[in-house]
User: Fold this.
Amino acid sequence: MLIDGKQMHIQITKGEIGRYVILPGDPGRCEKIANRFEKPRLLASNREYTLYTGMLNGVQAGVCSTGIGGPSAAIALEELVECGADTFIRVGTSGGMQDHVLAGDICIATAAIRQEGTSREYLPIEFPAAANFDVVLALRDAAEQLGYRYHTGVIQSKDSFYGELRPHQQAISEELLAKWKAWKAGGALTSEMEAAALFTVSAVLGVRCGAVLNVIWNADNDAADTIAPDAAERGVITAVEALRLLIARDKGNRAI
Assistant:
């Protein structure tokens, strides 16, 4: 789906962004992330998609916002793959589910609960939304090197932000509360809105994707005014350092 040679939604062409891409939800975060690269430059801005590219460890890398939720995230991923990208790290905010997952922590997803609709358009619900193992390891190693408090495990992806925040107001409140209780009992770490779709689409397209989530509050125990002010930066820094590790490891694998 090309318009004037560019992808319909992200508005770039093949080869413009490189293999390695960080995926924030918010377009407003893209410039700040890109400024951690060498020679960052704006590629395009259309709808919820803002794209930058630059150099990282001598290799081209990029940033592309996805907007909120699975549908727009899946579109971004599909079009980025068409442009030659094959390694992705979602970075975003989330609400901790376990009592020990606190504001200021980061969560590295190994898999995501598919409580959203987009992934069902790609694979049956029985298929797990799993993060790529290489990306998970790079994120874990980066978090350890940085000295951040982190958790690794299953997260939850949803379609309704206020369905989580105000479940008692919903017509299906009993179902929402029962599922939340079950997910917590199973050890789910934190709740967000894009990872399950990204992991599932990545599996179908044969590319690598992981996610690091900034915990800005505990969804069950904190009020909105307890948001950790600098929490969003930790995930970004972890993602950039993880890309550096992946680039180095990919170079090493090619040399063998």
